[in-house]
Amino acid sequence: MLLIGIILTVLAYIASLYFSKKIKVSFLNPILIASLIIVSIIHWTPLSHETYANGGEYIVKILGPLVVVLAVPLYNNKHILKKYYKPISVGILTGVISSAVSVAILSRLMRLDMDIMLSLLPKSITTPMAIEVSGIIGGIKELTVVFVVITGMFGASIGPLVFDVFKIRNDTAKGMALGAGAHGVGTAKAVEISDQAGAASSLAMILCGVTTIILSVIVIKIL
Known about the structure:
83% of the residues lie in helices and 0% in strands. It contains eleven helices and no strands.
């Protein structure tokens, strides 16, 4: 029973990659399609959510150690950091701060509960890091995962449109924007643009995650 969740997740993602390439609609990315497949199977078959979660949760658990692998592209593309360290630093800090401020303001305007607001704060960083931040600041980890996925899919979908509207041609800038705003899903989209965009997006995703964790710990210590 343990393997059911793992096998279903892998097969759903493989199928989603096939459909995504056939459909070629930016919003219908592999993660969304795979999620719809799994939800449909759980809803329309005897398979229960609890049975699926027994295996599916192990995929979530291995995401944490896998974050260490992100150090490899960071090291391999250190020349980009050295060349563009000023705009990268400004972009990362702007992205992290603007995300947090917008969540705080909109949460107040919409009168959301504090635990929901705290769950929303790490929405723009990659899932394993977001889970850790959510735990540090007192958010609901399950909600954080949902918000992270939605943010990634939305950002990756509208990113190319934003680039066209504002006539952004630099692949490094495109990658930084996708990585900072849409983490892993945005990075997957950046790779489709070019290797340069993919590398920049990986850097942005890593740096935004690390920056968010550091700032979260500092804020919690102060409070």
